[in-house]
Specification:
Layout (H helix, E strand, L loop, with lengths): L4 E5 L5 H12 L5 H8 L7 E7 L2 E15 L2 E13 L12 H13 L9 E6 L3 H10 L3 E12 L17 E2 L5 H10 L5 E3 L3 H9 L7 E6 L5 E12 L2 E10 L5 H17 L4 E4 L6 H8 L3 E13 L6 H6 L1 E2 L9
Parallel strand pairs: 4-5, 8-14, 11-12
Antiparallel strand pairs: 1-2, 2-3, 3-4, 3-8, 5-13, 6-12, 6-13, 7-9, 9-10, 10-11
């Protein structure tokens, strides 16, 4: 007879068993260092619910919480990631199955208004189709439509080969301090609901990532005040080398800063031998039209965005038109 199922929040000592189940569920390994970066070092906290049989983790429902500023108040939006069930438990993928019970316990613990006193207004993600269908059927996921990207080909033979970060007066940022928060605060009034991009979050998300090397480009004025930044890295997608811009933070009143940062990002993309630059930008953002004016074209991605809101103030109208998010608000870059 198998051991009874225990569902509870993650505890110290669960890691080894959890990572073994991760490999069994996804067919790939996850290093302990990367796991700790994601779930233990996130400045907004840890949100992981596990199911165990004996001392073996057999399921996980987890999310990465982000502090979000919306209508003059701080809320929490969390991206659901790496939720899984051990192959031996997949026979029970119904409403009373191991995965669904673990997920419901997670929502009770972390969602706003839940029995556990949670604070999360909205959960969101870009799940693979099989997980999306399970979430829609069992967990109340709402589909928001196809995710689109803005894409522009990198012109390797352009005449401005003399352009460099130095000639553009753009610098690589190796650290981020309180000026990152000042920059975000200048941008925030036109962003709607957005993750608070302070130095702690940007450093955790990009500069301290244990696996991926991100490049952070910034423009400073004559007084060394940070006026804008962009973050990205090169990836191989569908046989092409692509420069993914994970984050863009520039006040819309400073188009000259935007031009310099974009030009510098293209210089970097050519150094990475990339064929294209791609980014996400919500249609409601003033930068959505600006990037298209710079030659970026709207292209569909394979991803469908889903949400589950526990806050009446975060309705579908906010999700579709009032939420400013970037690739860096996902785990896809």
């Amino acid at each position: 007879m198998s051991a009874p199922l225990e569902i509870r929040p993650l505890e110290e000592g669960d890691e080894e068993s959890l990572l073994a189940t991760f490999e069994a569920a996804f067919g790939r390994s996850l290093s302990l260092e990367t796991w700790r970066w994601a779930f233990r070092r996130n400045p907004a906290g840890t949100q992981v619910q596990v199911a165990l049989r004996g001392d073996q983790v057999v399921a996980q429902y987890a999310a990465l919480p982000y502090r979000v500023w919306m209508d003059g108040q701080e809320r929490v939006f969390s991206q659901v990631v790496d939720s899984m069930v051990h192959p031996d438990e997949r026979g029970g993928l119904g409403r009373q199955g191991t995965f669904a019970r673990t997920a419901q316990a997670f929502f009770e613990t972390h969602a706003l208004g839940g029995a556990g006193g949670g604070t999360v207004s909205m959960f969101y993600g870009w799940p693979v189709p099989a997980n999306r269908r399970i979430g829609e059927r069992l967990l109340g996921y709402e589909r928001c439509g196809q995710q689109h990207a803005l894409v522009r080909v990198v012109e390797a033979d352009r005449t401005s080969e003399s352009e460099s970060l130095a000639t553009l007066d753009v610098v690589q940022l190796s650290s981020l301090d309180e000026q990152a928060l000042w920059l975000w605060e200048r941008c925030a009034p036109e962003l709607g609901a957005s993750t608070v991009r302070d130095g702690a979050w940007l450093s955790w998300r990009y500069l301290r990532h244990p696996e991926h090397a991100y490049t952070c480009l910034g423009v400073r004025d004559s007084e060394e005040i940070l006026r804008g930044l962009a973050v990205g890295r090169a990836v191989d997608q569908d046989g092409k080398r692509v420069a993914l811009m994970a984050d863009w933070l520039v006040p819309s009143a400073e188009p000259e800063v935007a031009q310099r940062i974009l030009a510098a990002f293209e210089v970097q993309a050519r150094e990475w031998a990339c064929e294209a630059i791609a980014l996400w930008m919500p249609p409601a953002s003033p930068w959505f039209a600006w990037f298209q004016a710079q030659g970026f074209a709207l292209r569909p991605t394979p991803w469908q965005r889903v949400v589950r809101s526990f806050d009446r103030r975060v309705d579908m109208e906010v999700v579709q038109g009032g939420w400013w998010y970037q690739l860096g608000d996902s785990d896809l870059v």
